[in-house]
Write a structure and sequence with these properties.
434 residues; alpha+beta; Molybdenum Cofactor Biosythetic Enzyme, Chain A; Molybdopterin biosynthesis moea protein, domain 2; Molybdopterin biosynthesis moeA protein, domain 3; 4 domains; 6-stranded mixed sheet; elongated; binds adenosine monophosphate; binds magnesium ion
């Protein structure tokens, strides 16, 4: 008789369990600020200076003493010229200074009059056509950053804006978390690599390996070092061999396919044989077949006593005798969605990132979803010009076209229907793919 089927794990519960296992990797490295895009900061960045360093002009115009401009139209002599980068003299009483955007405001000046509000006279003097407000067009020292403040905190994932900000306080290099080393392989005897066999020569039953392409790119975008082990046949021995090899010198093994319950699915027993399987099957659609476990490291680097079945309850560092294992479903959309919702937070947490899950927004549905499902669903959708969500017509887990068409996922709780106009929870792909 078959054993009773264990209940599927709710997604939030699975994610929490997964994150508890994702202890930040030991070790960080310094990289050039130029090359820090996508990396996670491993230090607090404290500014050693004010930004801007001095009060400076935000306009091309004239620096003035307001007290000397009681009325419009008074002509005043120009006593100095201050381009950006210059060090000005104090402003002589009874005069104004020609000044350009970004140039330091001379001592004594308390406002800038923009060029458009002035009139240059033949004799070199300049008429101020409008009485300035106090501090007008002056950017104050420290209005962006004050000396001693933390501009970016450890755990921040760096992007173009953060790179610019780090540069603005003079940082040429940054301390970042080291890249997780991820071994990737696809399982499936039906899989063929593009370039290996031409489309017209494909044998019946054969399909191209698409998962390998998006998984590799997703890993690279998350700052991982990818060790791609290619395609592994649907055989127990080959699966064990691939897992043993992948566990050497990697932090994570990521596989696709072979994680269901058929006789051709060898991942589950193989992981159980080499380590432990802690998580298996999630109550989500697409993506039910998902596995997390650990594999005892088979490496000459390790002492014999280090190698053993790790305890599934104690979160530890990868490399301490074990390697994380994550098995994704073979169906391309399931693989894609489970990566974004589970693997992405896991890999960010390994790098010490503070924000690991996406920020959802509420948007109105522009469709009806009349049939509730027992599992929580993630529908491929996109925003129309009115900001309403439209669904891709075919929500099958094999239809990869939906993932390109969509610009986000709609999170539909289990047992829920949706009517046109209902607000729904939308996860933009722009964030999930970043
Ligand atoms: P599996 O999880 O191995 O049972 O695979 C489920 C479905 O996904 C099957 O139709 C497979 O042919 C398909 N599949 C598995 N791996 C891949 C892959 N790497 N690329 C495209 N389709 C795949
Ligand atoms: Mg398979």
């Amino acid at each position: 008789m078959n054993a009773p089927r264990p209940a599927l794990r709710p997604l939030d519960d699975a994610l929490a369990a997964l994150l508890a296992q994702a202890q930040p990797l030991a070790g960080s490295e310094t990289v050039a600020t130029f090359d820090a895009d996508g990396r996670v900061l491993a230090e607090d960045l404290v500014s050693a200076l004010q930004v801007p360093p001095q009060d400076n002009s935000s306009m091309d115009g004239y620096a003035v003493r307001r007290g000397e401009i009681a009325d419009e139209g008074v002509p005043l002599p120009v006593s100095q010229r201050i381009p950006a980068g210059a060090a000005p003299q104090p402003l002589q009483p009874g005069t104004i200074a020609r000044i350009f955007t970004g140039a330091p405001v001379p001592e004594g000046a308390d406002a800038i009059v923009m060029q458009e509000d002035t009139q240059a006279l033949e004799d070199g003097r300049v008429r101020i056509l409008r009485v300035p407000d106090a501090g007008q067009w002056i950017r104050r020292s420290g209005e962006d950053i004050t000396r001693g403040s933390t501009v970016l905190a450890r755990g921040e994932r760096l992007g173009p804006a953060a790179q610019g900000l780090a540069a603005s306080i003079g940082r040429e290099r940054l301390q970042v978390a080291r890249r997780p080393r991820v071994a990737l392989f696809s399982t499936g005897d039906e899989l063929v690599m593009p370039g290996q066999v031409a489309p017209e020569a494909m044998k019946p039953g054969a399909i191209y390996n698409s998962n390998r392409f998006f998984l590799r790119s997703l890993l690279l975008r998350l700052g991982c070092e990818v060790r791609d082990l290619g395609i592994v046949p649907d055989q127990r021995e080959a699966t064990l061999q691939a897992l043993r090899e992948a566990s050497r010198d990697n932090d994570v093994i990521l596989t696709s396919g072979g994680v269901s319950v058929g006789e051709e699915d060898h991942i589950k027993p193989a992981v159980q044989q080499l380590g432990s399987l802690d998580l298996w099957q999630i109550a989500m659609k697409p993506g039910k077949p998902f596995a997390y476990g650990t594999i005892a490291v088979q490496s000459s680097r390790r002492d014999a006593q280090d190698v053993g079945t790790p305890s599934p309850t104690l979160p530890r560092q990868a490399g301490e005798g074990f390697c994380h294992f994550i098995g994704l479903p073979g169906n391309p959309v399931s693989s894609f969605v489970t990566f974004l919702l589970l693997v992405r937070p896991f890999l960010l947490k390994l790098q010490g990132a503070t924000q690991v899950t996406p920020v959802a927004v509420q948007l109105p549905a522009h469709f009806d979803w009349p049939r509730p499902d027992k599992r929580r669903e993630f529908l491929r959708a996109r925003r129309n010009a009115q900001g309403r969500l439209e669904l891709f017509a075919n929500q099958s887990s094999g239809v990869l076209t939906s993932t390109v068409w969509a610009d986000g996922l709609i999170d539909v709780p289990a047992g829920t229907t949706i009517a046109k106009g209902d607000p729904v929870r939308f996860l933009p792909l722009a964030e999930l793919l970043a």
